[in-house]
Amino acid sequence: MAVPLGPTCPALYVLGVQGTGQSSPNADPTADTGVVGALVGQVINAVPNLVQRSYIGYDAGFGGAVPGGGAEPYARSVGEAADLLRAAAAQIGSDCPATLLAAVGYSQGAQAVAEFAQDVGAGNGPVPADRIAGIALYSNPTRTAQSPVFPGRPGQSVPDPAPGTPGTAVSSVQIANPTADGAGLADEGATYGALTGRVADICVDGDLACSAPDRAALLRVGAEIAAQADLRDPLAALGSIQGLLSAALGNAWTTVVLDDFQIEADNADYLPHASLAQRLIDAADPRIPTPDPVDRDAAAARWNELISALGVNPLGVLPKLAGQLSAAWGQLLADNADLVNPAVLLRFVDTVARHNGYASTGQILTGTGWFIALAHDLAGGRS
User: Fold this and answer.
1) Which parts of the chain have pLDDT scores under 50?
2) Given this model, what pLDDT does residue 380 score?
């Protein structure tokens, strides 16, 4: 679908990606609704002659479980939004070569915008980094652990200026949201390359989507499986989750056997390159390629080698492996300790309200002021 453009190209074009249940493939691309619309609508009202906007219409689904969202699994829905965002940015970049872009996403939409920003920052996006004025992420599930408001810039509260401007108006903007504990449920250690300083990642502490507990590996595994599941009804959900869980456990087993066991003719050691928790997280993550049939066959053969070593030298191998695996199990329990810690769980008693409150509690206001300032700087002070 073509991105709506006015009769002339604006100084700044804002692309918005709504959260789960707040969009659809046929959504009006200029309707200022939802959390993202609450931000962008104020920008349009303040500087209507400098800014144009459109919202990415996509499934916004969570496997059919969220009212208003489509039937697509979350992971597929995010991928669709990111692809549509890339296409929209490419069109504006081509049709309006002097216009700079900004993007804002909330929740599921923030994950799509974050993926877009990572690509652009790494030089792999549909437009170069110097065409991006600013990126605002709210309740971003890919937020890195303990990330400051400006990822990669601890202590920074003023955004970097838009490329090609002195940043006079932007210099008066303060985005000083307190750093939230934990990380997003889909944290993958994201970095923003050339966009560092122009990406704001705003998270309210206690919002499970972006500030999940540090030691809750199985919560992340569950979230990754749910993101791929068909959740339209209990029967479909049970079958879908069971299949995904079985596949994830099989993938984890394959990787552990291939990468974490050292086997010789009559000896074997478990020497992990990653913890069991990380192996499970990676195995359930749809963004990480799964082992192929060759890998699975190799793991089966390696397992047979392990059994053979145990048969040849049981007294030398079994006690040692038992100790190594016991230590790994203890580490797995430690990596999930927050799931049974009442003090940690209290942080998330009102997590739904925190997740849904970015507009009502004023968290979006600094983003609004930032985008207005960007427009003024790009227009050279025109109003």
Assistant:
1) 382-383
2) 87
**Structure tokens given for 106:** 């909330």
**Mode of pairing for the β-strands spanning 51-55 and 12-17:** parallel
Q: List the chain domain ranges.
A: 12-213+351-378, 218-340
CATH number 1.20.1250.20 given to 12-213+351-378: no
The H or E element containing residue 138 is strand 132-138
Backbone angles phi, psi at 135, to 5 degrees: -130, 125
Instruction: Print burial letters for 227-264: b (CB count within 10 Å at least 16), e (below 16).
Output: bbbbbeeeeebeebbeebeeebeebbbbbbbbebbebe
In whole angstroms, what is the distance from residue 218 CA to residue 193 CA?
30
What are the residues whose beta carbons fall under 8 Å from the beta carbon of 308, sequence distance 6 or more? none
The pLDDT of residue 1:
65
In angstroms, the CA 202 to CA 184 distance is 11
Encoded amino acid at 246, one letter? S
Chain-centre distance for alpha carbon 233: 26
Answering whether pTM is above 0.85, one says: yes
Is residue 112 within 8 Å of residue 105, measured between CB atoms?
Answer: yes
